[in-house]
Amino acid sequence: MVNLTIDGRSVNVPEGTSIMDAAYSAGVPVPHLCFLKEINEIAACRVCIVEIEGKDKFVTACNNKVEEGMVVYTNSPKVRLARRRTVQMILSQHDCKCATCVRSRNCSLQTLANDLNITDTLYEERLEVQEWDKTFPLIRDSKKCIKCMRCVQVCDKIAGLGVWTLEGTGARSTINVSGSRTIAEADCSLCGQCITHCPVGALKERDDTEEFLRAIADPKKVVVVQVAPAVRAAWGEGLGLDLSEATVGRIFDSLRRIGADYVFDTAFSADLTIMEEASEFIARFSNGELKDKPMFTSCCPGWVRFLKSNYPHLTGQLSSAKSPMQMFGSVMKTHFAQEIGVDPENIYSVAIMPCVAKKGERNMEFFNEEYAGHDTDCVLTSRELVRMIKAFHILPETLEDSEPDHLFHDVTGAGIIFGATGGVMEAALRTAYHSLMGENCPPDAFKVIRAESQKTGLTEATFNLKDIDLRIAVVNGLANTRRLIDEIDAGTKKYDFVEVMACPGGCVGGGGQPIHDGEELAFARGKNLYFLDKNSKIRYSHDNPDIKSLYENYFGTPNSHKAHHVLHTDHFA
Ligand code: HC1
Ligand code: SF4
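That is the input. Now the predicted structure with HC1 docked in place:
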């Protein structure tokens, strides 16, 4: 152990501890901008400088270790002056139009400048202007970039992709898409992790709220909105609601007040996905198709984009089931349109998602005899939902619990846990068990695959069902996924069924969720979904009464000709 003094407090920490962590353990947070634990510890911003007694130069707290007897000052007059100069220098290269910035009031640079009482800029402004394709779902504003390197490191270490790179040197250094490509040419999975880890407003999703509001204002359009499982676990963070207040029922109320004609829960179509995917899995497993390579889940478009660009030869291993979002859209434009007597052309299908990649998935076009075009017309992130609620001056405390509409009212706990890593697999296994054994398993029979923390991001298990050993794996985070797929591809790991989610912790940690300066909240949000599952009246997708009626009245059986036509894709489009 090492003994030292930080701002007059005695501290005792293990050898090798950083000054930043030692200070934190003593209740002394050191201001910082670029630091992200175990991801970006390179002191690029130099905001975390501290003074050490007996040394002439400041040291950065994030990447320097404690030493025995050290006397550290994190906020001495000299430190404060130097830190102010550093931040003023950063501000001189940053577009400080906070009033028009999407991250205003949730920006680490703004908070820091306010805390340091910076009311003017000392240096001449020098903003970098870089062209950007504003139609792409991920938007970069070079004028706001502070070169902290977080996006570069997050894309490399969490997403395993390396879309971003540092170019140039000294004052001319800049972040750009790597390999002199445009963002559309790069293999961006659209997981959005660079957005949720950006400390300022340099990265954001394309805002589609105006498009949605135009449809609301159009009297011809019937606007149907679905809300993804993971949104309920995080939207309240953006409005100051606690978990008991931030119910999905209150999201439905807010959407109705904004003008939606019908509101639904994507957990319903998650149950529908399970019906299709579990029966597809049993069929592919039984006919020997999965002897060498597993079937992969296909509901995460970040993962699907990653697989298609990095391992195109494995595309055929994906489940052919569309994602719950797309299934809901296609059911809206077929069965639902017929039932309410509206031309599918006039159904405007909207999805509130925790995800940026869903904005890309929405572009998939389908040409059926029933309708042509998109299953989903507009995707809004949890953050866009929160912004709309604020824009409509809805007081969060006045929201009331409200039920989803019929015909797709009922949901199950199995559908709700889709939003957490392992949830799709667990829901599928509950239904596969029922198909193979003819009875329900205990609802928590497969809970060993739930993840409590990031650790390796991989969970493996073998379950014996009717004398068959089912080898499954669940992975989250694309860098972890790359390691796993390399092994599957090389034949050194064998599974029958693999769930992949691009974002750490699954959709609850999605790139469209409220931002907390890189703080990892995905696993706490996931626990909330498991709590909702435990307290659900129905916990098996195949027991959902509205799912049963949908098959009785429209699709017949899972994987029927009609179901295939409306609910599946070959992923090669
Ligand atoms: Fe997800 Fe899914 S779980 S992909 O993360 O399968 O976005 O929440 O809606 O489609 O259900 C996202 C979440 C979501 C789909 C479902
Ligand atoms: Fe989107 Fe969920 Fe996939 Fe993340 S894990 S890219 S939020 S679907």
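The chain has 18 helices and 19 strands.
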